[in-house]
Amino acid sequence: MIELSLDATTEAIDWIRSLLATVDFTDNLQVEEAKSPWAYQVRFYLPEGDRARIDQIESALSSLHRTGMTSELEMSIVEEKLNYSSAIHRVGNFVISDENYQIQPSEIALNIQESLAFGSGFHPATILSLQLIERHITPDLEILDLGCGSGILSIAMAKLGAQVYAVDNDAIAVEATQSAIDQNSVRDRVRVDQASLGKGSDLGHWMGGEVGEIRSISSTETFDVIVFNVFARIILDLSDDLNKALRPNGSLILAGFTIEYESELIETLEEFDLIDREQTGDWIALVFRKRVGE
Hints:
The protein is of the alpha/beta class.
């Protein structure tokens, strides 16, 4: 068989998965810590002799190499897949792991299986989101996870006692979230649909893939919190829908963008007060509270 491998930054892992989905690669990725300056090494496998498939994958991932997010894709012929242990990530009390990890009493396990949906737990935006979720989510809040991806944020909020409506315009993400719901035994706290909020259903696939017709949620003062980890331009486009869907004094937890967008987001969300903020490198996450009467 053929082993394909590359080194990657923390930002690159979810992009690798999303880009592989565009060429219908559905096998698991092996992700382990790498030597500096790279954060992780990624390996995956194909049957020997599938040159056309390799060319497809190489083309799909080439943009990540050009922008410095990964090393060049390397290929070698191996007898069998390399055994590996999946990386364990800790964000506050959250532990992102597989089912083999022995959870400690103070920890909250997020069992997220390999999938091609965005939200592995490696990306800084996901880590920042989890930090803010741990601070701001309390039991019985009604929450919209808009663009749920792998379901990692929905599972985290459900394990903090919230009721979560998880939606995504990508069928792969919906399937991944449903699997995560079952794997983490939170069916009573999370429901998932292929849908979007307001005019978000008209914006296509936010990561550049293909989607069919998407159901639009038209909500007025329905949610206590909306969590939205996505490009800043999508947040800006949906700002009116976000405001409409939140109850008075409700909160927005926003991530997926860098510091250059902060001032524009604050200006656009004029009906909200900025109440919390996290940053790692150039990546930021913000919490806004809707003013009563707005």
